[in-house]
Amino acid sequence: MMKSIKLKDKVFEIFIPETEISAIIHSMAKDINEIRVKNPLFIAVLNGSFLFASDIMRKITIPNSEISFIKLSSYSGTSSTGEVNELIGFGEDITGRNIVILEDIIDTGITLEKIIELLKEKNVANIKIATLLFKPKAYTKDINIDFIGKSIENDFVVGYGLDYDEIGRNLPHIYKLKE
Which residues have a catalytic role annotated? Predict the structure, then answer.
């Protein structure tokens, strides 16, 4: 296991090893399965949550679970632009559906707020939020997050779906920017 890795001009050090990620996902899936949402539609937020969504969906045992994807963009390099642009929306009718949003990371909450706004316009029944990583010190919104895998400091992280200028998503561990 590489303790540190260089991506473009930045050096990152291992922060959350693959084994810990796996344990977090196992625990989160157990908690989600226990809420027994009827016919849930899981919505994975691309690109970052693709690995998390894949791993957690394999552990979801709720009957008639479905998954769909939404892609929004608010990052440029290592900082949020503060603006969210809808890139890929919902193709199917989701009126009256029970939604579980799958996020890789929630920091400011700007993207989450936009997703919830879009979902409410579609008249969904209810919304639950599951995030692998949460940055409480960066969070500026008043939206309840139902399932948090791990709360972290406001560090820039990469790996396991998270990127730095679109690279590093394939790394099996989560790394943080080395100061």
Answer: 107
